Amino acid sequence: MADTSRAPRSPRALRRAGRVAAWLPAAAVFVFLLAPLAVLALSSLNSTSSLSFPPSGLSLRWYGEVLSSQDWLVSFRLSGVLVLLVVLTTVTIGTLAGYGLVRGDFPGRGVLSGLALAPLMVPEIIIALGLLYYFQGLGLVNTLPGLWLAHSLVALPFVIRTVMVSAQALDPTLERAAATLGAGRARTFLTVTLPLLRPGILAGAVFAAVTSLGEVAVSALVSGSNTTTVPVRIFSAVQFQLDPSVAAVSTLLMLASVLVLVAVDRFTNFSEVL
Amino acid sequence: MSAPATAPVDGPTDKTGDKTGGETGGETGDKTAGKTARKRYGVRGLLPVTPVVVFLLALFVVPLVRVFALSLHPVDANGYPLDGYSFVQYRRVFTESFFSEALWHSLGTALLVTVLCVLLGFPAAYALSRARQGVVRTLLFVAVVSPLLTSVVVRSYGWVVLFSANGAVNRVLVGLGLLDQPARLLTSYFVVVVSVVHVMLPFAILPLTTALGGIDDNLRRASRSLGAGPVRTFWKVTVPLSLPGIAVGATVVFPLAMGIYITPLLVGGANQPLAGLRVYSQITSVFDYPVAAALSLTLLVLTLLGVSALGTGFRFWERRLHG
Where is it mostly found (chain B) (predicted)? Predict the structure, then answer.
């Protein structure tokens, strides 16, 4: 890099070398990002019970073990139910709020926007302690409704933020045109506004789904033996046992997230709203 | 507390007014029709926000207030909360090095992680913003987003596998003859920082990519045609113009890094002196909720102070750059 700075009008070869030198760090960062995920996926194929990497032999036996284990199946079902509940809740109230916060013209809008995104700014352990203490009083610890509310709280700001991005790009004259053409408030919202907010809503749904699917920081405290989600079961398994079955579950969880992303990416350009 | 609390009071009244009053509207006191319409629209605008406000009041504001109340409770010898109020928990947080050193350690680690995320995120974001539409761009994008979509436990576990006694890193080090036998890498501070940076990095890359993608290419070309080399153009044009992205990335990463506890716990073990982990162990193994509350609220205040200091710093830097 120092060479190119000393010779600004360097010949083409040197410039190309400089460009390669500039891209190398980027390549290293991309490898860094993917390395632990790739390592997990590969070690889940280990044929022995050690988590050595590279794997000492290839087999799918750990997947079979996981898929025939009652504990893991119960967790998979719980996580699946939670994802559906959390996405439905956060997308419904988050879309309304994201749109209302951008479009509304009411006193205290700034304060409310701040409140809506505030959970992102608060360290997760505080939210976890707050909900644990609160839920203990309400009898919601180790229950499905408790996890549903906790996941919704963590996922909500993401939905609001992506919907706000879409709402900011929405042209108000389109809604006014619908109103002029005789559509009522509800009809305008359903047939004009919602379709235009779709990219933000779908991106928010993806975020809500993967947040719920991967949430541990709060769940680790408010869940219990009857409500162990997949990531919480991984969390305790990693602390006490190290065998490739956990790697297999992790790989399945990654695949689930990728599937959610791919499914939604078919309907919208995901990178647009990030 | 008082400011957000006014919202749901407005909300329900507006809702009932909307049902009963309907199109006739209730604001009789207004002189002009336009003013009435605007005001009605204004109050009605609160309607869609109401569910979220109620939700956040019930599940975010109230629990935080209750944690605050909890932190003011004295406890008996068994850690059982007593009646009355005192600052004894905060005194413990500030005087017992077990807690106070964890706070400083968390602050230092979060700053280090933030700096590393911006430094590492920059080249990645630069590549992502310069990549042309197509397969390469999609692949790079997937590389950035897929860790974000993967659970923190899974990513941390990946590092556990990599750095474990018979993991790849130890094998390479032993294979190269740098180590005689596998070392205990997992509990080291280095590995904790590496894994926390890995968890946070996408949060820095995405806003940086947006900022870098928004820079008009003609500005770089103008700089080059005026005689600046690529390096000088990078420092004098690209970096200053990407400052908003750096600011967003840093202010997102810093608070997340301040409270992180899952990753350090899995990778570094429960004895890592980080405030988030101390709160967790106070809750789960000591059952001393009041001191956990005091420690976590001190951590929150420190986080908010840090975020606003970062914001001020970036504003100052930006103002200096733009004259």
Answer: membrane
User: Which positions in chain A touch B267 (Cβ < 8 Å)?
Assistant: none
Let me know: does B274 contact B258? Beta carbons within 8 Å: no
Residues of A in contact with B158 (CB under 8 A): 35-37, 39-40, 250
Asked if the ipTM is above 0.90, the reply is no
Rounded to whole angstroms, the Cα distance separating A97 from B221 reads 43
Q: On the CB side of B233, how many CA atoms lie within 13 Å of its CA?
A: 17
Check whether domain B99-321 has CATH 2.40.50.140, yes or no: no
Please write the tens of the pLDDT for every residue from B89-130: 898 889 988 999 999 999 999 999 999 999 999 999 988 888
> What's the CATH code, domain A62-273?
1.10.3720.10
Could B143 and A254 be called an inter-chain contact, meaning their C-beta atoms sit closer than 8 Å?
A: no
CA–CA min distance B28, chain A (Å):
19
Any A CB within 8 A of B155 CB: yes
> Domain coordinates of chain A in residue numbers?
2-43, 62-273
Of A5, A29, A121, the CB nearest to B232: A5
B243 interface with A at CB cutoff 8 Å: no
pLDDT, tens digit, for every residue of A109-122? 888 888 988 888 88
CA-to-CA distance for A62 and A57, rounded, in angstroms?
12
From chain B, pick out residues whose CB is under 8 angstroms from the CB of A162: none
Pick out chain A residues at pLDDT < 50: 1-8, 273-274
Tell me the CB-side half-sphere exposure of residue A33, using CA atoms within 13 A. 30
